[in-house]
Design brief:
Helix 15 links the parallel strand 17 and strand 18. Helices cover about 50% and strands about 15% of the residues.
Length: about 750
């Protein structure tokens, strides 16, 4: 029998009733999280794809929300077909729609293809969200995307997305459970309402916190497994992901034929350009310079030797299998300028070029002998590689977001071996790397070099003495003032006057000082090893790792690197971090992470406000007299509350009212189960009749009824307690009588 003043509505309760608008908002938020995770973690770089998926899903949720009270597959099918036709029309009018439907960046990659499929599956499901059950099922493909990306993407952005996903999913489950209780009888619902808000908040908080803790525990093992299965494909970075969303902000990474030095302050950038897996680090060299011209360096060796690429031959490597024809080789010509006549070992490097950089040179440890590139980085658009006699490899067009492998012959040496090395040198080395022609300051530099090395008896000790002199007398400062070449030789002014500068000045000064005492030297341009990541066993090379160092030739060994900045004191002024709460630092930190964290916080606040309004405000209104469409007066509500209070107490004693029982049936079962009789049974019967008369007999309760209902409920509970004590006393008394 329905409650007084209410209309039965089976759609409100049950396991498959229509969802609230808040559940649709949460479901759409889950789709946004999943699609963003797929785009970032799987590097689906086509910008229209993510926008298309989110837009289509938003349309699907809107159609489902509008049709939820009139469930019909026709609504969903018509809207879906119309949306796809509209998408095709839009793509045709704009010149193509391939990137909107299936991003080209996913072609041929199983992980990306699966991610694209799951994204489109969520779009299809969004048009069929006609019940709470279907909305909850939306979490399944979203969780699959999270799991797919979680093994290969280990950046803070993923943690944010995962956290939002957990919160939204938990909210949907809790909201679904609350919606189920709305279809129950008033007394049962009243018994549950007392714990609904506390229970829901506890569930959301505990589940979210547990998910984060478990995620942090299993994140590294999952990423390690993914990294082991895919040697270098699993090395996406937060900086790379951020810059992929800003394609116009790519960094041009190249080596030119001329290099100016002393040209003023230099900025540091944390943008990740490369990730390199190798047995050990080193200098990743791109080019060398042989001619010093007073204001900088020039390379007289033109990269005009064709180096490929050509189809790969030889044995499969850890990254490529030539038998599958998925790679091509670029071979570095062996010349007298890059020969390694002494003891060497082979070092293989597996390099990933991030999408943040556009590379027109290939980098690797010296002396590189061969590069093996992905086929997809070469074919489609013609690519040519050219080498100079010193081993530089230049490309005719920039490449990015690809992989290559480098095989290098690393010179092995010790200080004692270099001290014993002959000071003879090949004629080509002497002619190219010893001469120095500058307009002024040469005599002064030569005198300084001779003074610093007067106690050194071999080439190695002379170079070391010069390196230590520069490191101890000059300061490393990225913000040093520019040194004008108009006032004289830049190296002379750096060594004798300013004594502050960055790596270009240190490397140039050491090379020039070596040449003044007939030691063959040059400067090399490339990158430092970068920061080693022990979890993934690779070196993270950033834009700030761009570097210049000195290389000195030793007979019987080859070129040996020396870095005058190694022991130099760094006096670069850097901004002090005043903390997150200092002068709005917390706001800057939040906004510096992009639009996702502020959006997540705003969404979380909206959902929290919804819970507060629905659970606190609306429940309080119901207790104050609202019951469906009609309003209960205070006395009637107090009678029902007294009966609900007694029902909760009885439930704790194992005497809960069954869903199918009427109040009268419940009363008879209580009397039979508890054995109460006399006045207590009469009081229970009186309370039951009062509740039935008020709920179903259209009678309005009075203040006297409210007080009497509370007294009767208390009396019944007291009688039950007395009966329980008597039940415990009788066996003891019987035992005493028997004795």
């Amino acid at each position: 029998m329905p409650e007084r003043g209410t209309t039965p509505d089976v759609r409100q309760g049950g396991a498959d009733g229509p969802a609230t608008p808040a559940m649709y908002v949460a479901g759409f938020g889950i789709v946004v999280c999943a699609v963003t995770t797929a785009v970032l973690g799987l590097e689906l770089t086509d910008p229209l794809f993510g926008v298309t998926i989110i837009g289509m899903a938003g349309l699907g949720f809107s159609v489902s929300l509008a049709a939820r009270h009139r469930p019909s597959a026709g609504w969903a099918l018509a809207a879906l077909v119309g949306s796809i036709l509209g998408l095709f029309a839009l793509g045709t009018s704009s010149g193509g729609f391939a990137g909107q439907l299936f991003p080209a960046s996913s072609s041929g990659d199983v992980h990306r293809d699966l991610g694209v499929f799951l994204c489109w599956l969520m779009v299809l499901l969004s048009f069929a969200q006609l019940s709470r059950g279907w909305l909850l099922f939306m979490c399944v493909p979203a969780a699959a995307i999270m799991g797919l990306v979680g093994t290969v993407y280990a950046e803070p952005a993923f943690l944010w997305l995962f956290l939002i996903f957990v919160f939204l999913g938990t909210f949907m489950v809790v909201n679904d459970q609350y919606a189920r209780t709305r279809g129950e009888p008033t007394a049962a619902r009243a018994a549950k309402d007392g714990v609904s808000i506390i229970g829901q908040l506890y569930v959301v908080a505990v589940c979210s916190a547990s998910a984060v803790i478990v995620g942090r525990i299993i994140a590294q093992p999952m990423q390690s497994v993914g990294s082991a299965l895919v040697p270098m494909a699993a090395v996406a970075g937060a900086e790379a992901a951020r810059d992929q969303r800003r394609q116009s902000a790519r960094v041009s990474v190249s080596e030119s034929s001329e290099l100016l030095i002393g040209n003023g302050p230099t900025t540091e950038s944390d943008t990740v350009l490369m990730r390199i897996r190798a047995e050990h680090g080193g200098y990743w060299r791109g080019a060398t310079f042989d001619w010093y011209m007073g204001s900088g360096w020039r390379s007289t060796l033109r990269p005009n030797i064709s180096a490929g690429p050509r189809p790969s031959r030889g044995f499969p490597s850890a990254m490529f299998d030539p038998r599958m024809r998925d790679s091509v080789d670029v071979v570095v010509p062996r010349t007298e300028l890059n020969d390694t006549p002494g003891r060497t070992h082979t070092l293989r490097q597996y390099v990933r070029l991030e999408g943040t950089g556009r590379f027109t040179d290939l980098y690797g440890a010296a002396e590189a002998r061969q590069y093996r590139l992905m086929d997809s980085a070469v074919f489609g658009v013609p690519l040519s590689a050219y080498a100079d006699e010193a081993g530089r490899i230049a490309l005719n067009r920039p490449i990015a977001s690809t992989y290559y492998e480098v095989e290098s012959d690393i010179v092995e040496w010790s200080p004692d071996e270099l001290r014993a090395a002959s000071e003879e040198m090949p004629e080509a080395i002497r002619d190219l790397y010893v001469p120095i022609v500058i307009s002024g300051g040469l005599d002064r530099l030569r005198a300084l070099a001779q003074e610093v090395t007067r106690n050194a008896s071999n080439r190695y000790d002379r170079v070391e003495a010069l390196r230590q002199y520069l490191s101890s007398t000059c300061l490393y400062n990225l913000q040093a003032e520019a040194i004008s070449a108009d006032a004289g030789d830049v190296v002379s002014r750096f060594v004798f006057e300013t004594k502050e500068g960055e790596c270009k000045l240190f490397a140039s000064a050491l090379a020039v000082l070596c040449r003044t005492i007939c030691i063959p030297a040059r400067v090399a341009s490339g990158f430092l090893s970068g920061e080693f990541d022990p979890d993934y066993q690779y070196y993270v090379v950033r834009e700030r790792d761009k570097h210049l160092w000195t290389e000195v030739y030793f007979a019987g060994h080859g070129w040996v690197p020396f870095d005058a900045t190694t022991d130099a004191r760094d006096v670069t002024p850097r901004e002090e971090d005043g903390g997150l709460l200092d002068q709005g630092g917390w706001l800057r930190s939040l906004l510096s992470r992009g639009w996702l964290p502020p959006l997540a916080i705003a969404l979380g606040l909206l959902l929290f406000a919804y819970v507060v309004i629905v659970e606190l405000v609306m429940k309080r209104l119901r207790w104050r007299g609202r019951s469906g469409p009609s309003t209960l007066d205070a006395s009637t509500l107090r009678v029902l509350q007294s009966y609900a209070w007694l029902s909760r107490k009885l439930r704790k004693r194992g005497l809960a009212r069954k869903p199918h029982e009427t109040p009268a049936e419940y009363e008879r079962r209580l009397i039979n189960a508890t054995g109460i009789a006399g006045e207590a049974a009469t009081e229970l019967r009186t309370l039951t009749e009062m509740v039935m008369d008020i709920r179903y007999g259209m009678r309005t309760a009075t203040i006297t009824d409210a007080a009497e209902a509370r007294r009767l409920a208390t009396a019944v509970l007291s009688a039950l307690r007395v009966a329980d004590r008597a039940a415990h006393v009788r066996p003891a008394a019987a035992m005493g009588a028997g004795a």
